[in-house]
Amino acid sequence: xxxxxxxxxxxxxxxxxxxxxxxxxxxxxxxxxxxxxxxxxxxxxxxxxxxxxxxxxxxxxxxxxxxxxxxxxxxxxxxxxxxxxxxxxxxxxxxxxxxxxx
Length: 102
Description:
elongated; two-stranded antiparallel sheet; mainly alpha
């Protein structure tokens, strides 16, 4: 004989909370990724698009456009990767179990 609870198709309360946690984790991850990719695009393509204007400024004796092309864009990319890894570790701690499937 089956109990009425076994026939109930609604999710258990802890499953619903886990689904909400996954959704919140995914929303925050997507938002952060969109911001970081936008920053990467601005630095990568903005340096090329505005090279003439950026050459008016100097950094360590070099035109800013040259510095950004030679080292700056690479350093910004490394900083973005480092920030992403640090922030994702914090998000995973804030939402335990959200990164795994049930």
